Amino acid sequence: MSEGSLAAPWWQRGVIYQIYPRSFADSNGDGIGDLAGIEAHLDHVANLGVDAIWLSPIFPSPMADFGYDVADYTGVEAMFGDLAAFDRLLAAVHVRGLRLLLDFVPNHSSTQHPWFVESRSSRDSPKRDWYIWRDPAPDGGPPNNWISDMGGPAWELDPATGQYYLHTFLKEQADLNWRNPDVAQAMTDVMRFWLDRGVDGFRIDVLWHIVKAQGLPDNPANPDWREGMAEKLRVLQHHSTDQPEAHAFTRGMRQLADSYGETLLVGEIFLPRDRLMRWYGSEAEPGVHLPFNFELIENSWNRDTLARLIADYDAAIPDHGWPNWVIGSHDAPRIAARVGEAQARVAAMLLLTLRGTPTLYQGDELGIGTVDIPPDRIRDPQDLRQPGMGLGRDRSRTPMAWDASPNAGFSTAVPWLPLHPDWPMRNVAVQEQDPHSMLALYRRLLAARRAHPALSLGRMTLHDTPGDVLAYERVHAGQRLFVALNFGPDAQDITPPARPGRIIAATGTRTAFDGRIDGDEGFIVELEP
Ligand code: NOJ
Ligand code: CA
Q1: What CATH number is associated with residue 510?
Q2: Could you tell me the pLDDT band of residue 64, with boundaries at 50, 70 and 90?
C-alpha cells in the first residue's frame, strides 16, 4: 500500500465528481437539466472541494437510454445546449481550477446515428460492417444466445435486409464493430475532437464490452441463475465481453490521451478483481489510468467484508497502477438508501480517506436516500423492460435540490423525475447553514484531504481493531494520520499505534480523542510521527 509522490498527476491527488446532466440544474424551464444549469451551479462543485467533473453523456441523443444512445459523437444535444454552451461551460470549469471529463460511449451508438442509418440501408452499404450484422439462425431466430443487459435477446431483426444486428443494451443502441479499422479510426477522431476542445479526459462506458469473440459463439449457461434474477445473468458473458483484443484498442486510447498531457482515462469495467487488473495494462503498454473499482458498491456493508476487500484490492494493484474507489453513480442505488444516514457519513469518510482516487456522485453530498418512484413516473428503460425486479435506476437520478423554493430550485417546471421526499430540508441552501449536515461533512473531509497529502498520496496500513471498527494509517512525508470508522452501532475502545494529537475531521461533533469511538462514528486523528 505504497506512497505516491508530490509530483503525482492531478488525478492521483484529486477527487472526481459525477454530474448527471439531466438532473443537475435546469436553466430554461423544461424540467430537464442542461449545460447552462451546470455552469450556473459550478460554485457548488468548486466549494465542495473536488478536482474534476465527469459529465454523463451530453451528445445528441433520442434519449432511449438517456444519452447513452449517442446519435452524434461530436455534437451537443439541443436539450442540453450547443457547442458554444459547452465551450462556455468548459472555460468556466477551468477558470475555477477544475477539470472536465466527458463520457465516451464506444461500444454502441444510437440506431439513429447516421452511421447506423447508412449501415442498415443495405447489405452492400459501405458502413454495413461498422456494426455487427448476422444472418438468422437456421430456425429464423437470433444468430446466437446472447442476452441484452436490459433483458431479452441481444439481437434485433431488420426485416428490410433480413439480418439481425447486435445490441448489448437496448435495441435502440447498436453495437459498433471495433474489429473494423474504420470504426476504430472514427472513434479515435471523436476523442481527438474533444481533446482538441480542451477536455481533460474521459470516463469510458462499458469498456470491457467493445470487442466480441471471433465467430460470436454461444455464451455458456450460468449454473447459478435462478428465477427472479436479472435476465442477462442467465448466461456467462464469456464470449461477448473481456476479449484480449480490446486491450490493444485501450492502449491506443491511452497513447492518444497521453499525447495531450495529464489527461485521465477512467474505464467503466465490471469484472472480477483479477481480470479488472489487466485493464491497467503493463508499465510499457499501459491501459486506462483507472479501471473503475465498484467493490464498495458490490459488497455487503460490514467491517470484516470491507477490511478484506480493501486489503485484497490494494494488494492486487500493479506497481505502475493507481487505485480508485466509487460509492455511487447514476446506475447504482444511493449509498444513504443502502446503509442509512449514519453509515452514509461513515461511508463518506471511508471513500475520502482510502488510498486511491475517489469518485463522488451528485446528491450523495446531501445524503439523498430512498426515493420511491410512482409507477407512472418510471422512466428508466431497464426498469420498464423488467418491471418489479428492483432494477430501477430512476431512484438515483432524481434532481439535485438547491433550495426550498418550488421544485427545489432545480427548475421552474415540474422536473422530469420526482424529487426526493425530504427535499425541503435536504437541499444545498439548508445544509450550507448547518455545520452538522452531510454537505458540511463532505466539505470538511475534502478540505482535510487537500490540506493533508497523506490522505491522498500516503502509504496505507490497515490495523487490527476489535468488533465493528476499521482503522488504518495514512503516512506521507512526516505526516501520520489515523482513520477510525465504526460500522456498528456500539461504542468501542480504540488504541492508536502512537500518541494521538488533533482531530482532523469527524463524522459527528467530536473535537478530541478520548480512547473511544462511538457507534456509527468515524474520525481522523493526527499521530505523533
Ligand atoms: C453504463 C451506463 O452507466 C449505463 O447508464 C448505460 O445504460 C449503459 N452503460 C449502456 O451505455
Ligand atoms: Ca433544461
Answers
A1: 2.60.40.1180
A2: very high
